[in-house]
Design brief:
Elements: H1 3-6, E1 11-14, H2 24-39, E2 43-46, H3 58-70, H4 94-106, E3 110-113, H5 117-122, E4 156-159, E5 166-171, E6 175-180, E7 188-191, H6 199-209, E8 214-218, H7 222-234, E9 241-245, H8 263-267
Parallel strand pairs: 1-2, 8-9
Antiparallel strand pairs: 3-4, 4-7, 5-6
Length: 270
């Protein structure tokens, strides 16, 4: 148990990606995070997960803050008000992520990946949910096939998982959740060839450095939570608790996507 948890110092976070307008699913998740922080008499951090420079714009950034504030959700730290653990926008934290990536390299836990998406999909390994292709073990380069001095270079970097390893955590809503490497997921990206950290690495680094004790997110990110548990463990950091909210589905039965700004209309509905 982390020192923060032992002292009952709850720190939650809401972390929108400003690549489009928020939808009802986001708001329900953010409200749950806010409610749990209030119940615990803790702190809530607003962080912008804006790693995608091409899609994350100032327009959507401002709209996220406006819509979350419009719901009456309050936060104690964030890009608009500052705090002790900033900056609170991921696009400003690349040097931090790179330093952690180097630690993983020094521990021989990552490797460069030059395989294309087409090559990976052609291998035909699909996870148990049928939702993503697994990265085959035999695609890993041999140690003598790459030079650490070229790090990070213009290539992707993957975390080397242990196939057949069980990954478990206790979800505060769902109870014990179990995953198996090689079935649900395999070696995953931690750094992209365009020079930016992956979602998995950036989230783990920020949640640790911002002393987040519980991550509230949607059920569609359960596998991401399992991957992130491996990174927390590999870096010797305490895992946060997790609370995965049920998804809000559209009329077609599919997960909602970002499109038009419909939140003001939704908020005004009795």
């Amino acid at each position: 148990m982390s020192e923060d948890k032992a002292n009952n110092c709850y720190r939650g976070r809401i972390a929108p990606t400003p690549s489009g307008f928020l939808h009802l699913g986001h708001i329900r998740t953010f409200r749950k995070a806010w409610e749990r922080a209030k119940q615990a008499k803790g702190q809530l951090v607003l962080r912008m997960d804006d790693l995608d420079f091409a899609r994350c714009t100032s327009r959507f950034f401002d709209a996220c803050i406006e819509d979350i504030d419009g719901m009456g959700i309050c936060w104690n730290e964030g890009p608009d008000i500052g705090g002790d653990f900033g900056p609170y926008a991921q696009k400003m934290r690349s040097d931090i992520y790179l330093s952690v990536l180097r630690k993983l390299l020094e521990s021989n836990l990552i490797y460069p990946c030059v395989k294309s998406r087409k090559e990976i999909s052609s291998a035909g390994l699909i996870n148990s949910n049928g939702e993503e292709y697994l990265y085959p073990q035999h695609f890993r380069p041999l140690k003598n096939q790459w030079n650490k001095n070229e790090f990070p270079g213009a290539v992707n970097w993957r975390f080397a998982t242990q196939w057949e390893k069980e990954v478990s955590f206790i979800d505060q809503k769902m109870g014990k959740v179990d995953f198996k490497v090689g079935q649900e997921f395999s070696d995953f990206l931690v750094w992209r060839k365009d020079g930016f950290a992956s979602y998995e690495l950036a989230s783990v680094v920020d949640d640790n450095l911002m002393k987040i004790t519980e991550v509230v997110r949607g059920e569609d990110l359960l596998i991401s939570s399992a991957r992130q548990c491996l990174l927390f463990d590999a870096l010797g950091w305490n895992r946060p608790d997790f609370f995965h909210c049920g998804l809000v589905l559209g009329a077609d039965g599919k997960k909602l996507s970002k499109s038009t700004r419909t939140l003001p209309r939704l908020f005004s509905t009795p």
